[in-house]
Amino acid sequence: MARMRRLWANLCGSWFQLSRRFPPALLDEMAAAIAAGERHHLGEIRFAVESRLAPLAVLEGLAAAARARQVFAQLRVWDTEHNSGVLFYVLMAEHRIEIVADRGIAAKVAAHEWAAVCAHMRESYAAGQWRTGSLDGIAAANALLERHFPGDGGPRRDELPDQPVLL
């Protein structure tokens, strides 16, 4: 039964509002927030928003968490010097937010800390506060990374693009 609800959400949900909820100005703000935070820690943040899953993928049982891991690989978030990539994955049709952290980050930041970030974002999104939820999520991730994976104060190479991706 849950699979049919998921299929219906991916076919008929509010996924078509992707560009209204994540307009270019917000995407630019998010990129700036990611870049500013990365100056203070060794993490690399990527943010991906997917409107919906393909119906066949839903019928085959692809869950949001598995799709987030696919996107993590597709965007090469794992490809950092310190294994310090973090992916925010938002699946609009199913109201799901997943954070996937590479092994260098996962060894230092507990899963419950990422879950708290997701919960806060979900509350903001449910209230229609897409800008606030996104920017607060990025700020919370930057704070966690600065605490658990601090930089050395010197300049460093930006290993992954900061601009969010709409899938």
Write a structural description.
With about 170 residues, this protein is of the alpha/beta class. It has one domain (about 1-150, about 160-165): Diaminopimelate Epimerase, Chain A, domain 1. Helix content is about 50%, strand content about 15%. It is built from 8 helices and 4 strands, in the order H-H-H-E-H-H-E-E-H-H-H-E. It has helices spanning about 1-10, 20, 25-40, 55-60, 65-75, 105, 110-125, 130-150, and strands at about 45-50, 85-90, 95-100, 165. A hairpin with a 4-residue loop joins strand 2 (about 85-90) and strand 3. Helix 3 packs parallel to helix 8 and helix 7 (about 110-125) packs antiparallel against helix 8 (about 130-150). The chain is globular.
Number of strands: 4
Q: In total, how many domains does the architecture comprise? A: 1
Question: What Rg do the Cα atoms give?
Answer: 16 Å
Number of H/I helices: 8
Q: Which series of helices and strands comes N to C?
A: HHHEHHEEHHHE
Q: What is CATH's topology name?
A: Diaminopimelate Epimerase, Chain A, domain 1
- Determine the strand fraction and express it as a percent band: 5-15%
CATH architecture group name? Roll
- Helical content class: 40-55%
Q: What is the average per-residue confidence, as pLDDT, rounded to a whole number?
A: 92
Alpha-carbon distance between the termini? 27 Å
Strand order of the largest sheet: 3-2-1-4
Alpha-beta classification: alpha/beta
Give the low-pLDDT segments: none
CATH domain class = Alpha Beta
Shape assignment: globular
State the major sheet: 4 strands, mixed
